[in-house]
Amino acid sequence: MLELRNVQVSYGAVEAVRDVSITAAAGSMTAILRANGAGKSSLLRAISGVAPLRGGTILMNSQDISKVPAEKRAKLGLAHAMEGRRLFRQLTVEDNLKLAWSFGSRKTPLPAAIDDIYGRFPILAEKAKVQAGYLSGGQQQMVILSCATIRDPDYLLLDEPSLGLAPIIVTQIYEFITGYARRSGATVVIAEQMATLALKVSDRGYVLRRGKVVLEGESKTLLADGIADSLSATYL
Ligand SMILES: Nc1ncnc2c1ncn2[C@@H]1O[C@H](COP(=O)(O)OP(=O)(O)OP(=O)(O)O)[C@@H](O)[C@H]1O
Ligand SMILES: [Mg+2]
123 near 142, Cβ under 8 Å? Predict the structure, then answer.
């Protein structure tokens, strides 16, 4: 279980996350919703430890990790696929995967782990020897997600995996994410502007506005209440 209690993140005078409390049950998927500047990325960065906490507490498996450095959180089984397609652009697809695997649990031997990825994203097998920087946006997102999951994390943070991608690719990406969640039993937190998409696959949703939670509930209830439509009409 992942528990955030009154989490605050600031950049100098800018308060990006204000007093956010979220509980993500073990093995569940949690959606963090809202458009630009709401504080979604800052919240995920606080969880993985790349943004410092200004206040509040983060518990992972009931252990307080608030002061644990990011590398140590990664060792504890947390992976963060950041926004903006961060990967090693000069390295080939396969070398990106190998490197990511080497930082993970290594429970699955490398060749099997790589084969598994290629089975799920056959296009990555074709591009195995191509430098990641030359791939299309959708293919890069596939590599990023594969690098996050090949480490076999128990906690997976995903920052806008659908951003800027064609609908057909978004479908593939989301199938991959839900597939990993099911197989691994990992606890997944996903920041997403496309509310309908995220609510359809998640168990619980939180709507952020200016760094605060303005609405939360079971995803299916939020969907039934038409929250996704309200969000795109920016009522909230
Ligand atoms: N490194 C930084 N330095 C200063 N301010 C920042 C920094 N990163 C984010 N902010 C500010 O913090 C607030 C929250 O930003 P954040 O990126 O967390 O939101 P977001 O919901 O992920 O937005 P987006 O949809 O654009 O990705 C914004 O006002 C943003 O301008
Ligand atoms: Mg963001």
Answer: yes
User: Residue 36 Cα, ligand 1 centroid: separation in angstroms?
Assistant: 8
Residue 37 CA to ligand 1 center (angstroms) comes to 5
pLDDT averages per 10-residue partition of the chain, 236 residues:
96 94 97 87 96 95 95 94 84 97 92 97 98 96 96 96 93 96 96 93 95 95 88 62
Tell me, using a 6 A CB cutoff, whether residue 205 lines ligand 1: no
All domains of the chain in start order, with CATH: 2-232 (3.40.50.300)
Whether the model pTM is above 0.85: yes
* CA-208 nearest atom, ligand 1: 21
